[in-house]
Amino acid sequence: PPQPITHLIFDTDGLLLDTEWLYSVLFQEICDFYEKKYSWVVKSLVMEAAQIIIDILQLLMSKEELVEESQTKLKEVFPTAVLMPGAENLIVHLQKHSIPFAMATSSGSASLDMKVSRHKEFFSLFSHIMRGDDPEVQHRKPDPNILLACAKRFSPCPPMEKCLVEATLATRMQVVFATPVLNSLQDFQPELFGLLPYE
């Protein structure tokens, strides 16, 4: 059973912000020009790796051109990202009861700024936000480095087993959101982790 926790660390894409589909729209638009289908099989293989997209789909463009075009389109679509169901309710609840929470995202500063531009007030509620281009982030997920670095920025730094995170990583932290336990943050029950329940 879950143990009582004192701190929470969230990811961004697909958990707090509904951005996952934007990547699919972006790459499908590019592939449409070449009359190719950016299928789920391709998505699962590439995970945004530009060279693999080009090689598998035989796009007549360089890796640099694909990255440049995708970045241009991302600037258009990222600011349209909406909050995921249950995200605002949970964050407001945590803040109301003075439960520390932060965010650890692989997104770099420029990318994250675009994603959160419509929700600055919401993200200002976080204790701190660890970005992928932070100097303390030596390795990207699934390496636990970013989550450990994020946890250490809480003041005071909590025991790792008292932190609840959304990814299954070797951090000694408790895991929930990336497992089949929850379909979305709407299903999160704070009382299962020793926190006050929703009113």
From TrEMBL:
One Pfam family of this chain: HAD_2
Molecular function GO terms recorded: phosphatase activity
Protein origin, superkingdom: Eukaryota
InterPro entries named in the record: HAD-like_sf, HAD_2, HAD_sf, PGP-like_dom2
Gene3D superfamilies: HAD superfamily/HAD-like, Putative phosphatase, domain 2
Name this polypeptide is given: Pseudouridine 5'-phosphatase
The species this protein was found in: Gorilla gorilla gorilla (Western lowland gorilla)
